[in-house]
């Protein structure tokens, strides 16, 4: 019991750190002027090809809406889930009509057993250490309906962080957890960087629709940058 209580306390602390980090970032209008990720087009194409567009889904880590709006405009009726109240407030300000579809919290706030035909998590499942990141992905896979799609984008090893950080943990599979150091009022944050083998192992029970690819596009310039991410679309067997 003591071990479980310690695990929960660690999860709660990491969740609070992540919420504080993103509240700070969205208060500075991070991403507000950037275009959506090109991966959004791939997600809409995969949903259309599998007869899931138009249709419902959930976007985990919706942030302040940079990718949420084009996905909704493309035909997905998405629940927008996020731990940042500041990010959700930005979406509500921009589009008050989406208020009822926005939910503050993580996957634990969803009704038990609820599933969605399309589950999207872009740049969110890597928050925390490796155990936390793996648990988040496994929890998200559980809310994919049979025959549904799981769309993922996470940090990859080989990234050169653009902010002061230190290695918090290195693992036998080659993955790394880094700790971003406080800077200009920004709270500390743990972030995990995946290898393709580790990520493929987590997704082994799902069928690749768009297999993992490595993307290093700098959204601001459209050119290769220092940040590397794995992205892919997987289908839960019917």
Automatic annotation (TrEMBL):
Coiled-coil positions: none
Naturally occurring in which organism (per UniProt): Streptodolium elevatio
Top-level taxon in the UniProt lineage: Bacteria
Gene3D superfamilies (UniProt xref): Vaccinia Virus protein VP39 (3.40.50.150)
InterPro entries per the UniProt record, alphabetical: Methyltransf_25 (IPR041698), SAM-dependent_MTases_sf (IPR029063)
Name under which the protein is recorded: Methyltransferase domain-containing protein
Methyltransferase in keyword set: yes
GO molecular function, one term: methyltransferase activity
Domain Methyltransferase positions: 60-148
């Amino acid at each position: 019991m003591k071990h479980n209580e310690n695990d929960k306390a660690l999860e709660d602390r990491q969740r609070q750190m992540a919420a504080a980090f993103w509240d700070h970032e969205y208060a500075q209008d991070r991403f507000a002027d950037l275009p959506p990720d090109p991966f959004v087009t791939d997600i809409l194409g995969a949903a259309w090809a599998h007869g899931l567009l138009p249709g419902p889904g959930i976007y985990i880590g919706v942030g302040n809406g940079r990718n949420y709006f084009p996905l909704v405009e493309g035909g997905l009726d998405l629940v927008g889930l996020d731990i940042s109240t500041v990010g959700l407030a930005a979406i509500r300000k921009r589009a008050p009509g989406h208020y009822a579809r926005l939910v503050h919290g993580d996957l634990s706030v969803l009704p038990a057993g609820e599933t969605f035909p399309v589950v999207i998590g872009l740049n969110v499942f890597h928050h925390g250490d490796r155990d936390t990141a793996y648990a988040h992905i496994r929890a998200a896979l559980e809310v994919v309906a049979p025959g549904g799609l799981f769309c993922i984008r996470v940090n990859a090893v080989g990234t050169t962080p653009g902010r002061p950080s230190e290695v918090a943990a290195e693992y036998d599979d080659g993955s790394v957890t880094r700790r971003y150091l406080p800077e200009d009022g920004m709270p500390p944050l743990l972030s995990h960087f995946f290898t393709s083998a580790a990520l493929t192992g987590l997704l082994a029970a799902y069928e690749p629709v768009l297999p993992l690819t490595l993307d290093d596009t700098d959204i601001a310039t459209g050119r290769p940058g220092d940040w590397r991410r794995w992205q892919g679309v997987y289908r839960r067997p019917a």
